[in-house]
Write a structure and sequence with these properties.
Blueprint (H helix, E strand, L loop, with lengths): L2 H16 L4 H12 L9 H13 L4 E5 L5 H10 L4 E6 L2 H13 L6 E5 L2 H10 L5 E6 L6 H8 L3 E10 L15 H15 L3 E10 L2 E10 L1
Helix pairs in contact: 2-5, 3-4, 6-7, 7-8
Length: 222
């Protein structure tokens, strides 16, 4: 058996044993395929991981960059509960509409705002308007802009807030300092910032599974 097939088989087993993915979550993933959205949402066990991070952090306010069909948004919205709030930012209006339908089906739309537009513009506006700090920030938009997203996120957090970056291994490409891939260079800048910014403490982990070879970075604001 080739490694990627084995990774997927193990992920299927782990999800079946440990993840309670209900009809609304299954429908959110299916709707992405039905509407032709790319299959790049987090895996079910990764969604559960994000939910646990939010709960361990005691998060009541979450900012997500990269909504897609709203699959991870549902996990995060359920983690913060009905008295919490999630702001999620999506570039594509068509994706945002699919997400809104999925959030409504999951019963969490009342405490989720779907902002449409370039993430850098939306987050800068949020920072400029002085919104209440976010307890968890999930960065899952374009990777070339990861350092800029982190800079802006630091204006929107408080001591103890958690910042999570997705897709930071890039199939191993992140280890190549000469890579011409803007996404790789963006992630490298993001990871360097986490490791050198005295306001942050964090680490990064490789993952393998149904989403291939990739990883998460997790940082905490000191």
């Amino acid at each position: 058996m080739d490694p990627e097939t084995q990774w997927r088989d193990v992920d299927s087993y782990l999800v079946a044993e440990t993840v309670a993915e209900d009809d609304a979550l299954v429908a959110a993933r299916a709707s992405a395929r039905e509407h032709g959205l790319p299959p790049i949402e987090v895996a079910p066990n990764q969604g559960a991981f994000l939910s646990f991070l939010a709960q361990v952090a005691g998060a009541r306010r979450v900012l997500e960059l990269g909504t897609l069909a709203g699959y991870s948004t549902i996990w995060l919205a359920r983690a913060v509960g009905p008295h919490g709030h999630v702001t999620t930012v999506e570039l594509d209006p068509r994706h945002a509409e699919v997400a809104r339908q999925n959030l409504d089906r999951a019963g969490v739309a009342a405490h989720v705002d779907v902002e449409v537009g370039p993430a850098l513009d939306v987050v800068a506006r949020l920072a400029d308007t002085g919104v209440e700090p976010y307890d968890l920030v999930f960065l899952d938009a374009d990777k070339a802009s990861m350092p800029a997203y982190l800079d802006l996120a630091m204006r929107l957090v408080r001591p103890g807030s958690v910042i999570v970056g997705d897709n930071v291994v890039r199939g191993g490409g992140v280890a190549d300092p000469g890579s011409p891939d803007p996404g790789v260079q963006g992630v490298r800048g993001f990871l360097h910032a986490i490791g050198t910014d005295p306001r942050l403490e964090g680490t990064a982990l490789q993952t393998v599974g149904s989403k291939g070879w990739d990883g998460f970075a997790v940082a905490r604001v000191r």
